[in-house]
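Reading a protein record of the kind used here takes only a little practice. The record below shows the convention in full:
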Amino acid sequence: MDTDALTAGLLRELRAVKPYPALSLTMPTHRRAPDNAQDAVRLRNLVAEAVSRLEADPAVTREAGNALKEQLERAVTEVDPRRALDALILLVTADEHQIWQLPRTAPERVVLSDTYLTRNLVAAKAQAQPFWALTVSAGHAALWSGTQDVLNEERTDGFPLAAPQEAPDPQREEQIGDTPSTFTDEETRNFLRTVDEKLRAVLAADPRPLYLVGLAPALALLGEVGESAGSAVGRITKGAPAGTTPGDLLKDLRPALDDRRQRIAAEIDGKLDEARGRRAFAGGLDEVWAAVREGRAGLVAVEENFQETVRVTDEHLEPVSGEAADLTDGTVREDIVDELVEAALDNGADVVFLADDSLAEHGRIAAALRY
């Protein structure tokens, strides 16, 4: 699954307590050759480690261990290297397995617990900045789920929608002297009301920024007959026929996506400046980590590719070089930034990823504090 599949409801399910053991296997992957040749070897090694730990764990019965190993084998055979991004996560119990491919790297890790490890999923979801796009015309509407790099058509929640086709009415045309305008026709208005109803349900279940794509009359009528268009953060006034490809649509959306990212970056700069002015600012990993743990961070800004391995000592973070990091040491956190992002979101903070080097003077991460 991709990060845009991680809804609030699914995250609650993943975090729910499960019969021990629940296995979380995470590892970095590579998108292209020749680097991706090492991914299969790394996965086999991690699977072997997971099997070894299962067999050595006295809390795991033979029956439970065999069932989990069977699910793990199924997951491995279903991994599609052609869809590899920057990380692979396997979540496995005796009854199920899930495969996640993420656009944000994750460390090598095998975790046996009574819940799944979700920090890397949550951070990747936040970084991906998922959005909805609706392509709409007088006779067709399609819903698209996207990130900065990927766009997929959604075939759920009633989408795509097609307007009922009526046969021409020569008598009506003779009476009014011409064919009726598409965008004044009541059937079209009813169709767009249905589109709006379906779209509002999607936005309520999974709130995301919304982009609208269609000819100006269609977008105007959608706004007139419904409520969802009013929340759109971008509009692309261009026809989007039913056969539109994801690549073509993402190309059309690119200027609007880039414009919104620039506006958000400027807005975040202003909020951080204001926080410094009222002495409610934290800069650097250690300060932001402390503020998040205390629930004082209202906004966390972090550079997109910032990651750090640290040792947690006396509630502080000490950077650890890759060579010196002993990942079997429980105080060492290789994915501390992802852990921080997850904790911040759980505490109700806003988390925004900015371009690399935009926070260089603040140690790559900063926060505006609530108090």
Summary: The longest strand covers residues 22-28.
